[in-house]
């Protein structure tokens, strides 16, 4: 049974970080390692994500951020360490159980990954029907309508992805992620390739989603504007490790040159 | 060392084939997507296959007629054309057209989905992309090509009848009777059965090339191109094998 339909989100009203109730840990990364041949992308990466918290992993291009998020969603298998999502160790899950777990995870791809042979409606219905979450057509239509209203694009339901702008495609991808009401959303570079205004709107939307649905978000980014707007906690990925973590303000005033260079 | 990439590719295709048989017949069955692919692969190929079959039959008749006339063997044209189209020309021409149209389409479609992370998105949505994309397409090509070949054969034979009547008068009944008297089940059945293998090869190679495409948009073009080249080559190799096997069984 899905949660009842909440009120539409207003992205513009989402500037300040939420005063969140952060009790349970929903995602744990313990000494995660991943190599491609001689290239050791991740080594001993350790980090927790709490319920209703936005954690941004900050790092330079090529530092292994996307590899990290793909390990969490199960698209890549880490060579070392342990990843626990909603209490389940990913390494021990069968394909079927992993698919069930993925119903509680959302993943916003950097490239949006909208199915370009399908309309916006079909894009949104695809995960819904695959996870057997809605059986009645009326219920499906209501979920699609609400997901699109959440991202402010209710009028695009019959358009093809190619007819949309970059920012609109990002919003539709977010709507497709939201339609399953995930407990954790993983964002891979959500503002990359967008103009500054649209990037700020997407950042506001990420914050709004957290406030409205009480989701936890694991966000990969190197856009400092986005980091400032959405992060409850920032973790710095360097040399494959979690080099430092803290609030945006704490890290911004850290004297360590390696941390400071991100904030100048 | 020179042959190692070829051997590696052959091994990878063999593994891909093994995965098709392992995963293809276990639930969940993607019936809806399979039917849609049958429509795309079969129904939407009809015009191309029909035109090709018609031209094949017409040209074969018009070109063979002068030579046959020199030997006073015009009456044998229906039999000769019937045997040629049913045993070899129909299956091989249809399969090659099919490889060009459908093989490239599948290679480009799946390649594009791979490089834009749509296949990953499918997996994240709790869908097995191999079942949804590969198994449905390979089954559709395997089942649709034989049907298309039968249609191309029929259209080609009718075109031959039209070709004969451009320079003379032959009744349809006599033409049909001549063709059927020259054909045995040993001509028709092996030619029909080999088209299942041709269709399987086109679907499998198209899916393999697309599914493992990389290198951005250049990789998509490369996947579409090599899907056609490799599947066309494979069709000829399978045809050669089919001739050898039917020869061993005494059908030639």
TrEMBL record, chain A:
Superkingdom to which the source organism belongs: Bacteria
UniProt domain ABC transporter: residue ranges: 27-264
Q: What is this protein called?
A: ATP-binding cassette domain-containing protein
Entry's PANTHER family? PROTEIN TRIGALACTOSYLDIACYLGLYCEROL 3, CHLOROPLASTIC
List the PROSITE patterns. Answer: ABC_TRANSPORTER_1, ABC_TRANSPORTER_2
InterPro entries in the cross-refs: AAA+_ATPase, ABC_transporter-like_ATP-bd, ABC_transporter-like_CS, P-loop_NTPase
Q: Which UniProt keywords apply?
A: ATP-binding, Nucleotide-binding, Transport
Q: Has the keyword Cell membrane been applied to this entry?
A: no
GO molecular function list: ATP binding; ATP hydrolysis activity
Q: Does the keyword RNA-binding apply?
A: no
User: A Pfam family for this UniProt protein?
Assistant: ABC_tran
Cleaved signal peptide residues: none
From TrEMBL, chain B:
Q: Which domain of life is it from?
A: Bacteria
UniProt keyword list: Membrane, Transmembrane, Transmembrane helix
Give the transmembrane region(s). Answer: 34-60, 138-159, 179-206, 227-251
Q: Which GO terms describe its cellular component?
A: ATP-binding cassette (ABC) transporter complex
Q: Name one Pfam family in it.
A: MlaE
Which GO MF terms are attached to this record?
Answer: phospholipid transporter activity
Protein name from the UniProt record: ABC transporter permease
**The organism's lineage?**
Bacteria, Pseudomonadati, Bacteroidota, Cytophagia, Cytophagales
């Amino acid at each position: 049974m899905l949660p009842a339909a909440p009120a539409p989100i207003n992205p513009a009203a989402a500037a300040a970080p939420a005063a969140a109730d952060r009790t349970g840990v929903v995602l744990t990364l313990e000494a995660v390692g991943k190599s491609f041949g001689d290239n050791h992308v991740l080594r001993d990466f350790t980090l927790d994500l709490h319920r209703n918290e936005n954690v941004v992993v900050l790092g330079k291009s090529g530092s292994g951020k996307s590899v990290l998020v793909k390990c969490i969603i199960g698209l890549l298998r880490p060579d070392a360490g342990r990843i626990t999502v909603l209490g389940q160790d990913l390494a021990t899950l069968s394909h079927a159980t992993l698919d069930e777990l993925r119903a509680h995870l959302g993943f916003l791809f950097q490239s949006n990954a909208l199915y370009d042979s399908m309309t916006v409606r079909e894009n949104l219905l695809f995960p819904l029907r695959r996870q057997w979450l809605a059986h009645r057509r009326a219920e499906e239509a209501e979920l699609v309508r609400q997901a699109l209203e959440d991202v402010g694009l209710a009028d695009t339901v019959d358009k093809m992805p190619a007819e949309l702008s970059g920012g609109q495609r990002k919003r539709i991808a977010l709507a497709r992620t939201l339609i399953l009401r995930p407990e954790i959303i993983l964002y891979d570079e959500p503002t990359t390739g967008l103009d500054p205004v649209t990037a700020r709107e997407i950042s506001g939307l990420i914050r709004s989603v957290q406030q409205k649905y009480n989701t936890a978000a694991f966000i990969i980014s190197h856009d400092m504007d986005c980091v400032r707007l959405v992060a409850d906690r920032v973790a710095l990925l360097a040399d494959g490790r979690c080099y430092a973590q803290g609030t945006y303000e704490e890290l911004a005033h850290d004297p360590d040159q390696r941390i400071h260079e991100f904030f100048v | 060392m020179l042959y190692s990439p070829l051997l590696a590719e052959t091994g990878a295709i063999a593994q891909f084939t093994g995965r098709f048989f392992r995963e293809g017949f276990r639930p969940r069955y993607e019936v809806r997507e399979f039917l849609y692919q049958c429509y795309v692969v079969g129904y939407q190929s009809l015009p191309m296959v029909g035109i090709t079959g018609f031209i094949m039959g017409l040209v074969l008749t018009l070109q063979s007629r002068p030579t046959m006339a020199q030997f006073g063997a015009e009456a044998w044209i229906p039999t000769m054309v019937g045997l040629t189209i049913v045993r070899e020309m129909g299956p091989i021409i249809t399969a090659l057209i099919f490889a060009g149209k459908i093989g490239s389409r599948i290679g480009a479609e799946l390649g594009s989905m791979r490089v834009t992370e749509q296949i990953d998105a499918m997996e994240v949505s709790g869908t097995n992309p191999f079942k949804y994309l590969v198994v449905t397409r390979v089954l559709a090509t395997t089942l649709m090509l034989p049907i298309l070949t039968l249609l191309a054969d029929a259209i080609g034979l009718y075109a031959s009848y039209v070709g004969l009547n451009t320079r003379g008068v032959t009744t349809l009944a006599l033409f049909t009777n001549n063709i059927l008297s020259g054909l045995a089940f040993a001509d028709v059945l092996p030619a029909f059965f080999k088209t299942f293998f041709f269709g399987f090869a086109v679907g499998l190679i198209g899916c393999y090339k697309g599914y493992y495409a990389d290198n951005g948009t250049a990789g998509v073009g490369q996947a579409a191109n090599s899907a056609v080249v490799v599947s066309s080559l494979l069709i000829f190799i399978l045809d050669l094998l089919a001739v050898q096997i039917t020869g061993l069984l005494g059908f030639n």
